Amino acid sequence: MRPAPAVLDWTKGGEGIAFQNCSACSHRWYFRRDFCPRCGSGSPNELQASGLGTIHAATLVTRAPSEALRAHAPYLIVLVDADEGFRLMAHGAPQLGIGARVRCRFVSFGGTLIPFFDPA
Amino acid sequence: MSYVTGVGLTPFGKHPGRTTLDLMSEAAALALADAQLERADVDGLLCAYSTTFPHLMLSTTFVEHFGLSPTYAHSILVGGATGFAMAMLAHTLVQSSVVRNVLVVAGENRLTAQSRDAAVQTLAQVGHAEYEVPLGATIPAYYALVASRYMHEHGTTEADLAELAVLMRRNAVTHPGAQFREAITVQDVLASKAIASPLKLLDCCPVSDGGVAFVVGREPTSGSRVRIRGAGQAHTHQYVTGAPSLTEFGAKASVERARESAGIALSDVRYAAIYDSFTITLTILLEEIELAPRGQAGKMARAGYFDRDGGLPLNTHGGLLSYGHCGAGGAMAHLVETQQQMTGRAGARQVKDASLALLHGDGGVLSSHVSLVMEAK
Question: How many C-beta atoms surround the C-beta of residue B252 within 10 A?
Fold first, then answer.
């Protein structure tokens, strides 16, 4: 399975959130693989998420793991339930709490492009 | 049936200049002496892993270093659940007559062999290399995400979490081998340095050097009549992003399997040894296992229920939070303490009745669960 060129994926440097679904059982998931983790069907579809979702969990990280990231701390790490029905980890505006509706943009963090959610 | 015939536990904390193999050897020698066995009696060896000595073949490295010639040996790795997973496998190997005496050993100079940043970065790698680690996530952050959701749903407060850190420290004060032996208060926990909200420094276990070993045998070679009566596991995910839920994990299913294999009810349990990498870990495990109702673990700790002389004594050595955490050996210290309680050797920490114990460990981010039922005959 190859991602369709039109689907942007931040883990590959594109300004977008990619997810997959299964034609056979309709399951949706985030971490890319070449089969459906629920029914085992091959050839999943690669899709572009809207970037809209709801905060499921949030933590303000004060203790960064490295000197390079220390300058960014504190930063809010969130788990977002995307409107399309999968969950992803990202950064968010510090005031965000559980249940908040959010919209994604992309920012540079330690030299990597990452998803960052603001209040929608 | 299998017997925990001997145990060995070094103090946890700083062991400058001591390597992984040094700490493993020290603990192994203590366990063999306690089991009244010689090296030649060991026909099974189970090892774990060491982040400071990431050898591909740790078990055979230890075979050569310590001077063993087992008929069965390998390492296993399920993070924090490894210690109890090794105990379960040792029990299974002995029960199925593959071997007579299994030496289970782990140790690591995790604190003094590297910088704090290096330890934090190595441990963060249990997260997803592409989807999580680039976000600057750490182990405390993964557990803090779980904590935020769990507290939101069950009304647990930061003060409730703090009660468990205070309890573990109160227990550690009476153990000469504990890394931290100065009493703390809820206020101290709440005022400690921010790490990843809602977790503060004193909600997190320390990084430690230490070594732990035990022997699981077919016959009681020593005075110990402590038996492993049942065991169970459950594995649901690896990454917190992929967890089926942030409020229900594999702990309940794992404990139910262990209870069924042992033929006991939860109400039979007299002593609990529960994984406590963070105060939220201990809270969730106690509540999911149903040793405390949802939202009540901290309040019950405050009321003394989990004290040495309370309704259900818990981690009387101080747990990972205060005895310390040297990797795979961390939870093995819970098993050593359980065996010491069951053999009446816990000194100032001795509880009145430790005749039946439930042990539970988790690895990853509440990803991998292993439960044991131990009993004193």
Answer: 17
Burial letters B179-204, b for 16+ CB under 10 A, else e: bbbeebebebbbebeebbbbbbbbbb
| Predicted confidence (pLDDT) per residue in A37-81, tens digit | 999 999 999 999 999 999 999 999 999 999 889 999 999 999 999
| Contact (Cβ atoms closer than 8 angstroms) between residue B342 and residue B376 | yes
CB contact at 8 A, B289 and B270:
no
In this structure, what DSSP letter does residue A26 have? -
Q: Tell me how far CA of residue A68 lies from CA of A64, B113, B114, in angstroms.
A: 9, 22, 18
This prediction's pTM: 0.97
Cβ–Cβ contact A40 with B under 8 A: no
The 10s digit of each residue's pLDDT in B219-236 is 999 998 999 999 999 999
Q: In this structure, are residues B79 and B49 in contact, taking their beta carbons and an 8 Å threshold?
A: no
User: Nearest C-alpha of chain A: how many angstroms from B102?
Assistant: 37
Q: Which residues pair with A104 in a beta bridge?
A: A117
Name the residue in chain A with its Cα closest to that of B123.
Answer: A65
Tell me how far apart the alpha carbons of residues B161 and B295 are, in angstroms, rounded to a whole number.
10
* Identity of the residue in B130, B137, B149 whose CB atom sits nearest the CB atom of A57: B149
CA distance linking residue B325 with residue B83, whole number of Å: 12
DSSP string, B25-58: HHHHHHHHHHHT--GGG--EEEE---TTS--TTH
Distance to chain A for B121, nearest Cα, Å: 6
Spatial separation of the C-alpha atoms in residues A73 and B71, rounded to whole Å: 52
Pairing verdict, β B72-75 and A18-21? unpaired
pLDDT at A4 over 60: no
Q: How far is B321 from chain A (nearest CA, A)?
A: 18
Distance CA A117, CA A66 (A): 23
- Burial class of A36 by CB neighbour count within 10 A (0 to 12, 13 to 18, 19+): buried
